[in-house]
Amino acid sequence: MGEHTVAFQGEYGAYSEEAARAVYPQGQPLPHRTLRDVFTAVASGAVGHAVAAVENSQAGSIDDTYDLLLEHHAHVQIVAEYMLRVRHMLLALPGQTLADIHTVYSHPQALAQSERFLATLNARIEPAYDTAGSARRIAAEGWRGVAAVASRSAATAYGLEILAEGIETNRENYTRFLALGREPAPAPRTKTSLIISTSNTPGALYHALGPFAARGVNMTKLESRPSRARPWEYIFYLDVEGDAQEEPLRSALNALHGLTPLLVVLGSYPTLPSRE
Q: I need a labelling partner for 257 at 20 to 30 A (CA). Which of 96, 130, 162, 183 fits?
């Protein structure tokens, strides 16, 4: 496959493929069924890079990505982030109307993001593993009366018609994708993601965040996840501004080493401009 191959979760026509092409215009996108497969491909060197969705502006965080970042942190680095404007379409076999549709398939995130429009249909809503995969299956099986929420490129890829376009509830619908590689991103790097854990004592998280505040480092996100080591213990994912190798973030991280049992830097990286 080689260094220019870019792994993404889903099938051709997925939003992840769109992100892969935007981040790596000269790359060769390669579909993988699960996010775990994507991370494993990067960690093993089977592909050069990958993209993985980490959160949506409407539906929130994608927990699997956070868990896999920790699991593979020894071999996988975040090398960039990209915000993809997501426009959902309702796709079906040619010659049908909205009134013909009795079932709609798509990824749970896409269904949640299109909830208001889908509520106007007299149709059963069924979650599936992928947006484009739902479109492909409708075409392959010749399912009439069945629609998929997917992208315009999925309609083209699988010969489906667009029954309705722009069905997302909120027009400010963006998905944040992380670009992944095995080597750190080249400078300039303007943002850093990291994981910390804290002791189960009063004020532990407050004290752990103190070094950032004391040095004027802006924190843009704080996400908690179960540690899986012990019941009711948590780890925290942080996004902060700055490069981990440069001041003032470097000294903040040095101070943090003595305050937290776990400190993992997932990568310092740039924010790539959106094509919107």
A: 183
